[in-house]
Amino acid sequence: MSYALQWSRLRRALGFARNQRWLIVVILLATLVIAVINALEPLVMKYIFDGLAGSEAWQAVLFGVGGLLGLTLLRELGTLASNWLTWRTRLSLHYGLLDATVARLHELPLYAQHREGVGAVMTRLDRGIQGFIGAVSEIAFNVLPAIAYLGIAIVAMVQLDWRMTLVVLAFTPLPALIAALAAPTQTRRERVLMDNWAKIYARFNEVLSGIITVRSFAMEHAERRRFLDDVHSTNQVVIGGVRFDSAVGALQNLTVALARIVAIGFGGWLVVAGDITVGTLIAFLGYVGGLFGPVQGLTGIYRILHNASVALEQIFSILDAKPMIEDAPDAVDAPPLKGQVDFDHVKFGYDKDDGLLLKDIDLHVSPGEMIAIVGPSGAGKSTLMALLQRFYDPVAGSIRVDGHDLRTLKQHTLRQQIGVVLQDALLFNESIRDNIAYGRPDASGDAIEQAARAANAHDFILKLEHGYDTIIGERGGRLSGGERQRIAIARALLKDPPILILDEATSALDPEIEAQVQDAREELMRGRTTFVIAHRLSTVVNADRIVVIRDGRIAESGRHEDLLAAQGYYASLVERQTRGLILPTPGGNFRRRRSGSITGPRNEARHG
Questions:
Q1: Each residue's pLDDT tens digit, 424-448
Q2: Residue 328 domain-assigned?
Q3: Beta carbons within 8 Å of 95's beta carbon, 6+ residues apart
Q4: Global pTM value
């Protein structure tokens, strides 16, 4: 990565702390004051020890000790204020970066998060932000004060004795040289650790999310062993890094110790020769002790900057990712919709190299019409509904609601008027009340209860220990599949949208509960445009129109009984799903062996 790109990213990242710029100035001033205080202490020590040889020794001790006490109090007060303000600044920068990156994560294409995994994305995000903030804090609040102290200390040392200064400064490049040689290895290690931890927690997240599958295959021990082996392997990288860093630190400490020993020997010889006083030697040794701390801090700046670069790679891989769909500059709020939907010769493919998934969809839906969308897996049924919600844009053709091209409307206001119940409905680890009110948090208790009744969920909710206030666990894990599905349906019903999408919405229900939900759902879907995606054809025989998608095109369209009479692909699906449960009639249609939904004549199908 070029230094120009690194510097550009650093300036962009620091822009998130622009609201705290005056606070940063105060912190830098405070640390500068602390550096000056630290530089004054050896001079006070010189005053004390030189005064011991004079006639006013007690006065020198008294004033010297008082001066040291005053400087110590000032330094601690400055350190207290600096630390408090530093943490305020760090948290502000952390908040700004989180705000930007989390907002962008909500905008990224769905495949971007599916490709790497949620656990990996979150690990990279957390470690990237923490690593960058740590590097910035180290540079701004440790390295810069160290530079200030270094400058003051060198000036004071030259004033004390220029010969000793030259001797000590001859050793100062050695820690920097050692650090520069070690930095590339340390940077590579940071990148390896970032990748390893991301992969480990991506897998760990998958295992916990699918713990039922893991237990069903008796793989708990294997997954635990795999996780711990990966952690152990990564920890070995950490241990190797600690060993390497310790060796680097030991070499640097040896140079510091050697410089101090040489300074003591040379300074002692100058004292014996009468060229300097004992106080001067003690003050000088005080500077030597304080000099190499900042020098060693400065020698690590190369490593710090490279670690910050690695962290910025993770942050800007999110910030610079192309959003899934952006609103047009002149996009307007969606008006209250009636529910007319038009797919006008829509074509779409996720990847140019894979060709088109939807090849020419031409479908016009009237307000209040119930459309069932069926077809084989991978035919594009859910993709068509994703286009309606404008998660993607068609590569050709257009989609309109009430005559408005979706690309002219703001996405947020469009989706506010579309209700969705997905195949695997996501519920949150909150109360049932909060989950039902998720799309309409200001809904009243009566409205929530009415939606639950409509979804045939009210009775089972009341049987729970805390009723509507029951916490249902992560992804609704404390509820059965059918109960979760009914809560999701209640959530969509409470939103009361003019357009409703049910994607396999009753696939998790047993026949008895499914029938109850179907009855309630048909009553509440009146006057609302509804799209029902289903593989179980028994759930859609009462649709106003059944649209069969096959090979990216609309292969058939019509009512259930008409499609049966046509003896096409849809009729073959019905026959495969109902083999042994229904008998053909003399006219070629089908009737049930026992009561149910799938029958032949239209009146029987729609009215039982």
A1: 777 888 898 999 998 788 888 899 9
A2: no
A3: none
A4: 0.60
Q: Which of 494, 517, 537 is the last residue of a domain?
A: 494
Q: Three-class SS string for 30-52?
A: HHHHHHHHHHHHHHHHHHHHHHC
- Separation between Cα atoms, residue 118 and residue 121, nearest integer Å: 5
3-state SS, 144-201, equals HHHHHHHHHHHHHHHHHCHHHHHHHHCCCHHHHHHHHHHHHHHHHHHHHHHHHHHHHH
Q: Same domain for 390 and 426?
A: no
SS (H, E, C) 331-396: CECCCCCCCCEEEEEEEECCCHHHCCCEEEEEEEECCCCEEEEECCCCCCHHHHHHHHCCCCCCCE
DSSP 430: S
Q: Write the CATH number for 385.
A: 3.40.50.300
Q: Within 10 Å of residue 377's Cβ, how many Cβ atoms?
A: 7
Amino acid residing at 167: V
CB 164 within 8 A of CB 263: yes
Count of CB atoms situated within 10 Å of the CB of 395: 12
Q: Write out the residue range of the structural domain in which residue 294 sits.
A: 3-319
Whole-number CA gyration radius for the chain: 36
Euclidean distance between CA atoms 16 and 132, whole angstroms: 12
Taking only the tens place, the pLDDT of each residue in 519-543 is 656 656 777 899 988 777 877 888 8
The SS3 call for residue 276 is coil
CA distances from 446 to 3, 281, 433, 489, 561 (A): 61, 84, 11, 17, 40
Is 245 in the same domain as 380? no
Report the alpha-carbon distance of residue 87 to residue 94 in Å, rounded: 10
